[in-house]
């Protein structure tokens, strides 16, 4: 009976060692997942900054395009005013 108790104790000790190894593996995996999460957070912040920058660039480009359209329209209006004032007998 004492031999049986000794075998049970040995089996329990082995199981404990196995559980310790599993726990250590899980801790390492947890640490790696935390590292990956921090990396992804940094990447996400970087992508957000890039998106904001691209949005600004797009808005600036649209604004420049609108300014150019306004200038072209103003030039056409000025040309029409010149024609309306004095250019009746010239160009068609």
Automatic annotation (TrEMBL):
Keywords: Coiled coil
One GO-annotated biological process of the protein: actin filament organization
InterPro entries reported for this sequence: KASH5 (IPR028170)
Coiled-coil stretches noted in the UniProt entry, renumbered to this chain: 2-57
Source taxon at top rank: Eukaryota
GO molecular function, one term: dynein complex binding
GO cellular component terms attached to this protein's record: chromosome, telomeric region; lateral element; meiotic nuclear membrane microtubule tethering complex; meiotic spindle pole; nuclear outer membrane
PANTHER family cross-referenced by the UniProt entry: PROTEIN KASH5
This protein's name: KASH5 protein
Encoding gene per record: Ccdc155
